[in-house]
Recover the amino acids of this structure.
């Protein structure tokens, strides 16, 4: 590809990301603002679609999808636990994993031979991964939304992560010279990653008053969210690279699947939840 063609492709990519943010961000803002139940329904829809995309990738790896009666209740238990909060969070995850283990044992008992049992075990390992990767990670957004200053903090997470993601792509496309992870995601650059972390840290300081944390805590939050988002993006790229697919799906026409658009946010959600929790503990003197 010539330099002109490559530059044109990069500009088209920047345009696609900008359009996604322009229509996607207002939609997400409305869902977050309206209320807990609409937000929870949105999380359920996202989880269902993202799990379907994940198993599409897994099957390209040669993994046989477990039965729906295992995956669906396991995901529901995790999300219901986050909705109820408290001890129900751990209970939901433990119950989900129990469902998957029982399902694996039942299916293994019905197979003949070592290869059949190995196939069941491989599928169950990926099933556990899918439940942790999607419903468990995204459940932390439910916890943040239901917590103190939940609306503004949830919106702050989304804006910081998506803003850093867009900036990393723009800087990497226009100025990137050093590849960050060539074999996993050739398009990502060190320059883009550094710009994203610096931008998010500075933005975290600027919005610290609105998300109700100290300025230095806002800076730490922004920088860590950008770093976590980058790792989340690379993780999904690793899954797709191994499966030899470009996009996780077609839920967002012209832009790929929901996992492609939310991969950064998935890993950033628990980081944000624990940082907000740590800030609350500091305020109440638990860590003093």
């Amino acid at each position: 590809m010539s330099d002109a063609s490559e530059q044109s492709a990069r500009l088209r990519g920047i345009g696609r990301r900008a359009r996604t943010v322009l229509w996607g961000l207002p939609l997400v803002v409305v869902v977050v603002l309206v209320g807990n139940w609409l937000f929870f329904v949105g999380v359920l829809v996202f989880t269902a679609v993202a799990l379907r995309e994940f198993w599409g990738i897994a099957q390209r790896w040669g993994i046989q999808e477990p039965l729906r009666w295992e995956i669906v209740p396991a995901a529901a238990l995790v999300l219901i636990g986050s909705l109820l909060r408290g001890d129900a969070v751990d209970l939901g995850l433990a119950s989900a994993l129990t469902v998957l283990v029982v399902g694996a044992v039942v299916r293994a008992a019905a197979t003949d031979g070592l290869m059949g049992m190995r196939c069941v075990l491989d599928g169950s390992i990926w099933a556990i991964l899918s439940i942790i990767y999607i419903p468990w990670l995204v459940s932390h957004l439910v916890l943040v939304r239901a917590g103190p200053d939940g609306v503004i903090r949830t919106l702050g997470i989304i804006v910081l992560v998506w803003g850093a993601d867009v900036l990393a792509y723009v800087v990497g496309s226009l100025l990137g010279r050093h590849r960050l992870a060539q074999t996993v995601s050739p398009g990502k650059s060190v320059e883009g990653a550094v710009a994203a972390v610096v931008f998010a840290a500075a933005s975290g300081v600027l919005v610290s008053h609105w998300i109700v944390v100290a300025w230095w805590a806002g800076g730490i939050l922004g920088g860590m969210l950008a770093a976590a988002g980058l790792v989340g993006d690379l993780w999904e790229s690793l899954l797709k690279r191994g499966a030899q697919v470009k996009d996780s799906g077609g839920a967002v026409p012209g832009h790929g699947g929901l996992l492609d658009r939310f991969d950064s946010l998935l890993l950033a959600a628990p980081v944000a939840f624990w940082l907000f929790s740590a800030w609350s503990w500091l305020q109440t003197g638990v860590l003093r």
User: Anything to note?
Assistant: The mean pLDDT is 86.
